[in-house]
Amino acid sequence: MTLFLQTLPFLLDGLRITLLVSAGVIVLSLLIGVPLGCVLAFGPLWARFPIRIYADFVRGVPILVLLYFVYYGLPAIKVNLPSLTAAIVALTAFKTAQVIEITRGAFQSIPTGQTEAAKSIGLGLVDRFVHVLAPQAIRRFLPPFVNSVVDTVKGSSLVSLLGIVDLMLALQQVIGRTHVALPLYVMGALMYFAINYPLSTLSRRLEKSFI
Amino acid sequence: MIATPDELVIRIKGLTKSFGAHQVLKGIDLDVGKGQVIAVIGPSGSGKTTLLRCINFLEEYDGGSVRIDGVEVGYRDVGAGRRRRSDRELANIRVDAAMVFQQFNLFPHLTAAQNVMLGLMKSRGKSKGEARQIAEKWLVRVGLAEKLDALPSQLSGGQQQRVGIARAVAIEPKVLLLDEITSALDPELVGEVLEVVQELAAEGRTMILVTHEMAFAREVANRVVFTDQGLIAIDAPPKAVFDEQSNERLRAFLSRFAAFRHAH
User: Fold this and answer.
1) What are the residues facing B210 on neighbouring strands?
2) Domain containing residue A200
3) Which of A169, B23, B167, B173 is the most buried if burial means most Cβ atoms within 10 Å?
4) ipTM of this complex
5) Residue A41 sits in a domain of what CATH number?
């Protein structure tokens, strides 16, 4: 028991970093990925093409490679990022590709009849987007996106490989010092679970509430 | 039968449309006068739905002209040629040719009333309050007084299609385009929808309807247009079309509808 109480503050510091990285990645990838996803769904071919290439390429590369590329690779071209920044950049690059795909899918799965109906009652481009397409796209976007947030929280444990003391590395350091592995891993797992379970539940809810 | 020019709502001249190498419309001429109800019948693939969709430019015609109240729908003249209209211009023209769809195409995230209100507010500049009033008036008229705040998913097909009609007619278009609006309905729900259309026809609204309901076409239309292989083969009053069956292809087509099988 005293072991838990002694290590808890240290683990919570790690958890704070895990949440910081995850939140940063989520917010940035939304800001970049949603607009790019809209372009991929509606834009002209010349604009879609580079986005398509980017999304396909990044999704075909292991996150770890992206992580090492940004942290160890970019300094070769004089881009030296602190480890935390490098981690957020690499994970954002990966997450953005997913957000682009989810956004594109959300819009493209709306039947064309919706756009036609909106046109036929005289709605212009902006009104069609704001009042007909976007509200329906959000309903299609949210369930897979929340799932993807869960993946982000879990995947953020990779940043420990850059020496960032997130929950994962904090756990390993505590275990290294105390040589008590099992209870501490259980505790760490429960902390990840405590964040992700509500999110998974939310995602299932969203899937049910929106047809 | 042919309306005088000042009463014309729709004037179609030499309309052509191809999908790839396949020419679906091969030069359609059609004038529709104010208050006329035109039923378009014909075998599938004869171009009747494409014709209807060219009138509000959901289908972009290649050649010829479609005018609503004298205004060319899809293009504006530029020098010697013509250029496709901007989305904004098209929106302003399309209000005058609202369409009701085979698959209803209601906005699933909006209630029945909101479905009707959207066009009123965005295309006709009505306030929310006015729009709500007009929407209620129309939904009551189509028999959905109890369903104002229901979502489309809570409505039967027939009810959904009546919302679709209310949504189209509420913005007071110059012509109402009805695209096989009962084809997706269970047979027992067809009547309630056709009743609404019949009322609209009776109050003098200009309508073009593509339909497979021959009995209905006969009853409600002033003119029946028979399309065949991308052309209008017959354009005549319903009685003439259904009783005389002057054209071999028309006879073959109608023979598939038991009620109109010609007695030889």
Assistant:
1) B40, B179
2) 2-209
3) B167
4) 0.92
5) 1.10.3720.10
